[in-house]
Structure formats: C-alpha cells, structure tokens
UniProtKB/TrEMBL annotation:
<dbReference type="Pfam" id="PF00293">
    <property type="entry name" value="NUDIX"/>
</dbReference>
<feature type="domain" description="Nudix hydrolase">
    <location>
        <begin position="18"/>
        <end position="151"/>
    </location>
</feature>
<dbReference type="GO" id="GO:0016787">
    <property type="term" value="F:hydrolase activity"/>
</dbReference>
<dbReference type="InterPro" id="IPR015797">
    <property type="entry name" value="NUDIX_hydrolase-like_dom_sf"/>
</dbReference>
<protein>
    <submittedName>
        <fullName>GDP-mannose mannosyl hydrolase</fullName>
    </submittedName>
</protein>
<keyword id="KW-0460">Magnesium</keyword>
<keyword id="KW-0378">Hydrolase</keyword>
<dbReference type="InterPro" id="IPR000086">
    <property type="entry name" value="NUDIX_hydrolase_dom"/>
</dbReference>
Length: 151
C-alpha cells in the first residue's frame, strides 16, 4: 500500500499508521470459478495469499479507489459485483519501521475483471486463482470468502 500513499511524507505516514486506522478497499476478484489472490511480499501479512487492496486516498470515493487499485495491482478494469461490507483488520506487524501494529477498516468488494489480469505489482510475487474448497487461507481472506454469494 505504500505506493498508494506516496504523497504522504514517510515520517507522517509512520505517524498515521501508529495512531489511526487506515481506510482501505479490498478486492475479492472472482475468476474462473474461484478467487484471485496474490502472494504478499511486504508487511502486514507478508508471505500470505491475500486479496489485492489499497488505501483510500483523501477525497477519493470508494468506487474510484477500487478502479485505481485494480489498475495498479491487476493491470485491468473491473466490474463491481457486490459489496461485502467493512471489516476490521488488526495486524501485529507493519511495513513502517518502529511501528509494530497496523489497523485497517477494509471495505471489501467482489469484482470481476473486464480484461485478463496482466500485472503483478511490487506487493505480490505471484497471482493465483484459488478454487473451492477454500482451505488454509489467511483468516481475513477466509472471512471474505465466507460472505460471498456464490452463483
């Protein structure tokens, strides 16, 4: 998410992460009968398969954030299918040196790509579609999966 907030000086971003929850969007990307996840390369949740997501910028609507994050992290446009709600995520790690925890208010949306996904950003080393049964996923990802209305 650091790229999303590059307009915030690093020392100020550290203060934000240390003191307030981060408002974000998480994209549950339905694809090929499953859900597209990325293997995270940074904290929090480093080494976990997780949904694409990003910080909501000041004066940015949630739908605008969804489309920006999809373009940045997936290299494609998406159709918004369903809003799953807002979820609290508490982590015991952070990407900010000297800040040991991170708190998100994640707004989760089910989306479908309008073109093939053709990007892997610097936050993920690879992307993969996970199909049912969904087992062994990060608990926050599993909560999303459990809320999806499967057709």
């Amino acid at each position: 998410m650091k790229d999303d907030v590059s307009w915030v000086p690093e020392d100020e971003w550290a203060s934000v992460v240390a003191n307030v929850p981060i408002v974000s969007v998480d994209l549950i990307v339905r694809q090929e009968g499953g859900v597209l996840l990325g293997l995270r390369e940074n904290e929090p949740a480093k080494g976990e398969w997780f949904v694409p997501g990003g910080t909501v910028l000041k004066n940015e609507r949630l739908t605008e954030a969804i489309h920006r994050v999809a373009e940045m992290e997936l290299g494609c446009e998406v159709k918004i299918c369903e809003r799953l709600g807002t979820f609290e995520h508490f982590y015991d790690t952070s990407e900010v040196e000297g800040v040991e925890t991170k708190h998100y208010l994640a707004n989760a949306f089910v989306v479908e790509p309008l073109q093939p996904v053709d990007a892997v950003d610097d936050q993920h080393s690879e992307l993969r579609v996970f199909e049912p049964p969904f087992e062994g996923l990060h608990p926050y990802v599993q909560r999303y999966i459990d809320r999806i209305i499967w057709e």
